[in-house]
């Protein structure tokens, strides 16, 4: 192998080897090397026998580089301190070959000199990049022009790459790599990559330095300016000239002067501005006070919209927005009429300026609830957080008080109660529109904390005003329509009772001085038109319910839904889908099919969603080139398979032991199937196993049902032995908690059906509470239940006799379509509901 090399490479030389432990010499480099070790001395002495040439081989760790630099000793020097040195010039790279023998003690090696071999044009891009990067680095380093000019002047690509060994960013191992990389292109690529990293890092560093520098500078400048400002102010004060205030404070003073604040609020706010100016800028209190001032000034003080009390117009707006709901609209119009009359007769002071102080001093205030708002305080605002004290006694007798309570006591608060999607929220919006007032909605669902309503005290971290005050800000006027949504879903816990705060909000005797804990000033809410909504009455806290005038919205019949869809929902959804009204054709009959086959609800929310889907699909078709109008004949083509099958109700009762009950759930009326089974004989005791998440009252009514049947077995001609077994009673939709006594008749019927083997007639739904004697007592939610029965395809309904009057609420079309029996005794239920003995 060695022989072969010798024969092919004539230029092979044998030269002494000088190890270089700390550096790399590249071709073209001229450098002085100190000669200290014996090895070096021997190598230099031996070089005389090789035309003053030797090979410099760098050493990294224990390893010698595989490539060295063939160098020529230009002169022998004496270095400082008398040491010997040589001045060498790098000639070329040399691949180190095998050891050889030679003169003196030196190590002789065979080397293959290698010259760079590249066409500069082939690496033009690389060289340009590398130059640019290096120039960038040198600029960052603040190196003088000379260095970059020197780099510019190197035209040979290999040499250019070799300059890397001069760089402080390249370590010894990398320098050796430069030397060992014989291929110029590869060498250039390597050094470019390294340099690029260095440049990127320098860029980031300098950006950070610049940013830091800037903010430091700004802070210093600010500090100096502030100090100067202080000095100027002091000087001015000493000269007796203004202004002495902080600019900030001045700014707030201007805003306060411009805002229509009630007098007491103004006094209080001014005090706070004084405090702001006294507070040191470093203190966190500054920002608290500022935030507080901003919140106060954001409130729409003195802003009110003029009521439009034209009743015909109002009715027109309500009618335009909502189909049907005549009774509810009548009630709303009545309220507006009362309001109008009171104003016309001067009983209300709607036209007087809104101020929370003076005019109220004449009225006795009612302080029977636990609030901090004492009687009106014409002399200014009580200290923040003042509790009611004995010096602050209630005036007048709250119970006997026959005086009008508030200034604008315009009657009770309307509460719209009904299942989801029947239009409660949108009615509220309509009322606002009819009156020409702003509208805001306050969602109360899940509010557990009094502070949510009334705000946190200012000392509390992250404190903010409560929802009522925020709603006023949002409304931008002091007389908006505020919809208190889901008032049945507020609950109290250890954090206080939100309903107590709501009581105060809704009480005309108190709400002209509603005090938010955060704001600490009185807010006059007496001009606000509050409307509450709820899904169910039962969970509205009692005292709150007392203040409400309940109007129920029980849901719609299928025919009503079709009209609503036609008049409102379809138009809206077509517009949403970017279609014009004539681009989709759908008959009432098909709409009805959608209602029946794809929705199951008391309201129209699912219906609206289905219509949205339908119009979207139609829009896709039109966009894809189908000719308009799209005629909808079979909704399943657009909505997918039918989801709701109403024959359900008749199928389910096809075996003895199952009866159909009517119930009111959170989503409106619904039918429930009571299933019963006899498990085993329990020795004549007659016991019950109940499933389906039944509440206490429901469990008791199951016991009553069984006891009634057992105690009247003989009279009812029931098999007494069969009744002595263990029964399982289940209410399907097992995951939904249910309670209430109104399933009494249904359970009695199901059990009677089971023990007699007589099936319950298909199409019969029932509701009513049962006593141990078998009396049927009245229940609630008649309209919702009858509508649900109708919706589910039942044709006969059994209701308690004492609910007879409620049936008037049910639309005539539904009444006509169904047979309704009123029953006083559960025996009548059994004879009407059970099929005859086979
Ligand atoms: N009688 C109606 N006429 C026209 N549109 C109606 C009618 N009833 C309901 N809608 C529409 O149905 C949608 C749902 O109504 P809304 O959101 O007001 O229901 P809600 O009773 O407030 O329900 P929730 O209790 O869930 O808040 C709204 O788009 C509303 O405009």
From TrEMBL:
Reactions catalysed according to its record: Hydrolysis of proteins in presence of ATP
Lon proteolytic domain boundaries: 653-836
Composition skew (Low complexity), residue ranges: 374-387
Stretches the record annotates as Disordered: 349-417
GO molecular function: ATP binding; ATP hydrolysis activity; ATP-dependent peptidase activity; serine-type endopeptidase activity
Residue runs in coiled coils: none
Keywords: ATP-binding, Cytoplasm, Hydrolase, Nucleotide-binding, Protease, Serine protease
Gene Ontology BP, a term: proteolysis
Known EC number: 3.4.21.53
Domain Lon N-terminal: 15-199
Entries under Gene3D superfamilies matching the protein: 1.10.8.60, 1.20.5.5270, 1.20.58.1480, 3.30.230.10, LON domain-like, P-loop containing nucleotide triphosphate hydrolases
InterPro entries: AAA+_ATPase, ATPase_AAA_core, Lon_bac/euk-typ, Lon_lid, Lon_proteolytic, Lon_Prtase, Lon_prtase_N, Lon_prtase_N_sf
Compartment(s) where it occurs, according to its Swiss-Prot or TrEMBL record: Cytoplasm
Family matches, as Pfam families: AAA (PF00004), Lon_C (PF05362), Lon_lid (PF22667), LON_substr_bdg (PF02190)
Assigned GO CC terms: cytoplasm
Catalytic residues (UniProt): 742, 785
Positions with a binding annotation for ATP: 418-425
Primary role: ATP-dependent serine protease that mediates the selective degradation of mutant and abnormal proteins as well as certain short-lived regulatory proteins. Required for cellular homeostasis and for survival from DNA damage and developmental changes induced by stress. Degrades polypeptides processively to yield small peptide fragments that are 5 to 10 amino acids long. Binds to DNA in a double-stranded, site-specific manner.
Protein family (similarity comment): Belongs to the peptidase S16 family.
Assembly, per entry: Homohexamer. Organized in a ring with a central cavity.
Protein name in the entry: Lon protease
Organism classification: Bacteria, Bacillati, Actinomycetota, Nitriliruptoria, Euzebyales
């Amino acid at each position: 192998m060695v022989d072969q090399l010798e024969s092919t490479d004539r230029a092979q030389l044998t030269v002494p080897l000088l190890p270089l432990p700390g550096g790399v010499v590249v071709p073209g480099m001229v450098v002085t090397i100190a000669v200290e070790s014996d090895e070096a001395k021997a190598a230099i002495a031996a070089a005389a026998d090789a035309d003053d040439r030797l090979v410099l081989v760098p050493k990294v760790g224990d390893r010698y580089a595989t490539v060295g630099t063939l160098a020529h000793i230009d002169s022998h020097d004496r270095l400082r301190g008398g040491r010997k040195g040589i001045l060498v010039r790098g000639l070329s790279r040399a691949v180190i070959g095998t050891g050889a023998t030679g003169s003196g003690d030196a190590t002789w090696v065979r080397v293959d000199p290698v010259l760079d071999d590249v066409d500069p044009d082939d690496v033009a891009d690389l060289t340009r990049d590398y130059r640019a990067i290096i120039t960038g680095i040198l600029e960052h380093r603040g190196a003088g022009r000379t260095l970059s000019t020197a780099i510019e002047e190197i035209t040979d690509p290999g040499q250019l790459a070799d300059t890397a060994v001069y760089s402080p960013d390249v370590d010894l191992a990398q320098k050796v790599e430069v030397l060992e990389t014989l291929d110029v292109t590869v060498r250039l690529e390597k050094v470019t990559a390294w340099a690029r990293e260095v440049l990127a890092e320098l860029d980031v560093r300098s950006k950070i330095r610049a940013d830091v520098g800037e903010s430091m500078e700004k802070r210093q400048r600010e500090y100096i300016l502030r100090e100067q400002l202080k000095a100027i102010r002091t000087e001015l004060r000493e000269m007796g000239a203004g202004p002495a205030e902080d600019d900030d404070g001045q700014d707030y003073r201007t805003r306060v002067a411009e805002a229509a604040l009630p007098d007491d609020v103004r006094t209080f706010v001014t005090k706070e501005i004084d405090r702001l100016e006294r507070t040191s800028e470093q203190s966190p209190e500054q920002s608290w006070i500022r935030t507080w001032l901003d919140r106060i000034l954001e409130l729409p003080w003195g802003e009110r919209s003029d009521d439009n009390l034209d009743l015909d117009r109002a009715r027109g707006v309500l009618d335009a927005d909502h189909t049907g709901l005549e009774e509810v609209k009548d009630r709303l119009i009545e309220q507006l009429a009362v309001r109008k009359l009171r104003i016309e007769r001067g009983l209300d002071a709607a036209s007087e300026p809104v101020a929370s102080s003076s005019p109220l001093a004449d009225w006795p205030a009612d302080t029977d609830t636990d609030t901090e708002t004492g009687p009106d305080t014409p002399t200014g605002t009580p200290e923040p957080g003042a509790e009611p004290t004995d010096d602050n006694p209630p005036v007048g007798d709250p119970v006997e008080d026959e005086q009008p309570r508030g200034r604008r006591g315009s009657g009770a608060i309307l509460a719209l109660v009904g299942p989801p999607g029947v239009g409660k929220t949108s009615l509220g919006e309509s009322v606002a529109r009819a009156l020409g007032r702003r509208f805001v909605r306050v969602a109360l669902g899940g509010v557990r904390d009094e502070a949510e309503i009334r705000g946190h005290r200012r000392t509390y971290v992250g404190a903010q005003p409560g929802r009522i005050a925020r709603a006023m800000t949002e409304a931008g006027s002091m007389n908006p329509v505020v919809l208190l949504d889901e008032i049945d879903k507020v609950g109290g816990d250890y954090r206080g009772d939100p309903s107590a705060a709501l009581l105060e909000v809704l009480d005309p005797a108190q709400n002209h001085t509603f005090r938010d804990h955060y704001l600490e000033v009185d807010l006059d809410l007496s001009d606000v038109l509050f409307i509450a909504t709820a899904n169910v009455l039962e969970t509205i806290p009692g005292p709150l319910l007392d203040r409400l005038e309940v109007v129920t919205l029980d849901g719609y019949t299928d025919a009503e839904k079709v009209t609503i869809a036609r008049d409102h929902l379809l138009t809206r959804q077509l517009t949403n889908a970017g279609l014009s009204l004539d681009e989709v054709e759908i008959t009432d009959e098909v709409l009805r099919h959608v209602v029946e086959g794809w929705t199951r609800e008391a309201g129209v929310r699912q219906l609206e969603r289905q219509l949205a889907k339908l119009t979207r699909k139609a829009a896709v078709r039109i966009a894809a080139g189908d000719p308009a109008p799209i005629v909808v004949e079979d909704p399943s083509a657009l909505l997918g398979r039918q989801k709701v099958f109403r024959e359900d109700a008749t199928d389910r009762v096809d075996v003895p032991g199952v009866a159909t009950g009517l119930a009111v759930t959170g989503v409106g009326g619904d039918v429930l199937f009571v299933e019963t089974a006899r498990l085993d004989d329990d020795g004549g005791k007659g016991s019950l196993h109940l499933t389906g998440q039944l509440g206490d009252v429901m469990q008791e009514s199951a016991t009553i049902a069984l006891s009634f049947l057992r105690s009247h077995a003989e009279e009812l001609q029931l098999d007494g032995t069969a009744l002595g077994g263990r029964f399982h009673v289940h209410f399907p939709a097992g995951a939904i908690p249910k309670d209430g006594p109104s399933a009494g008749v249904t359970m009695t019927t199901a059990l009677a059906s089971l023990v007699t083997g007589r099936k319950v007639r298909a199409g019969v739904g029932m509701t009513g509470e049962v006593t141990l004697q078998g009396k049927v007592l009245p229940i609630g939610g008649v309209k919702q239940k009858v509508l649900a029965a109708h919706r589910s395809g039942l044709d006969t309904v059994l209701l308690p006799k004492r609910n007879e009057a409620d049936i008037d609420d049910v639309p005539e079309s539904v009444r006509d379509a169904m047979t309704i029996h009123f029953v006083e005794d559960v025996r009548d239920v059994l004879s009407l509901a059970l099929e005859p003995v086979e």
